[in-house]
Amino acid sequence: MLLTFFHLGHAQDVPMAKISNDQIRAEIYLPDSEKGYYKGTRFDWSGVMPILECGGHSYFGKWFKNYDPKVHESVMGPVEEFDPLGYEEVEVGETFVKIGVGALTKPKEQEYSKFKTYEIYDAGKWEVKKSPNQIRFTHSLKEGSYPYTYEKTIRLTRGKPEMALEHTFTNTGTNTIDTEVYNHNFFFMDTMNIGSGYSVKFPFDLIAEGVVKGIGEFAEIDGKEIVFIKNLGEKDNVFIGSLTGNRADESGYDIRIENKISGAGVRITCDRPLSR
Questions:
Q1: Per the domain annotation, does 180 fall within a domain?
Q2: Is residue 1 predicted with pLDDT exceeding 70?
Q3: 27 in any annotated domain
C-alpha cells in the first residue's frame, strides 16, 4: 500500500520510534504486551501512528476522548485488521488466531465480534528493526493450528511526500490460511473531525449496497466521490456496507481523501485490487 501526501494549496510512557525523510516526520508506537499503547485484539499491533506531519499539515492524532489500551478503538494512524483464523472450528476455551495480535481464547459467544476484546493466550514474538526513514516489524506465532511469520515495513520514500506499507506473510504450518486484510486509515487531518469540507474520491462510479447509514444526512454520493455535507456529532456516523462498481485490477485501488478547508490531502494506492 502506498500513501502519498499532498497540499491542496507524548503523554504516555510507552515504547515509541521516530522515522523521517526530508518531507515527512512520523512517530510510531511499538508492539509491547506490557507497556504498549494498544493492547486490543481487533487491529494488528504494528503501525499505530499518533503523529504524521507533512508540508505543515498533520494527518493522524488522538481522535477519541477516552483511552483504554484494550479498547479496540484506542488506535491512531494506518492500522490494519485481518479476519480471524479458526474461530468457528475451535471449542470454547480453545484458541483462534488474529494475525498481528496472536492466539486468542474463544469465550462462550458463538459468533466472533471485532468489537469485543478477547483474552490473549499467546501474543507471539515481536522483533523491530529501525533505520532513519523506515521501521520493520516481524511477528512470529509458533504454536497452534495457524503458526506464521508476518513482516510489515513502514517506509518513508526518500525525496518524496510518500509512505509505503509493505507486507510479507509466511505460513509456517500445514493448515491453509485464507484471510482478508483492510486498512482502517484513521485520518484526523489537521485535527479536524470528519464533516463538511472532507471528500473521498474513487476511480470508478460508486454504488452503495448493504447497510447504509448517514448518506443523505451527513454525506452524499456524487458519481465517483463521497462528499461530506454536514459535521458529524460524537454519536453520528456514516457507514456503507459495500461499495460496488470497482475495477477488477489494482487500478481500482486509487483513493484520494481531501480536507478542502485546511488544504491537506492523501492519495492511497496499492499493488493489489480491492476485494470489495
A1: no
A2: no
A3: no
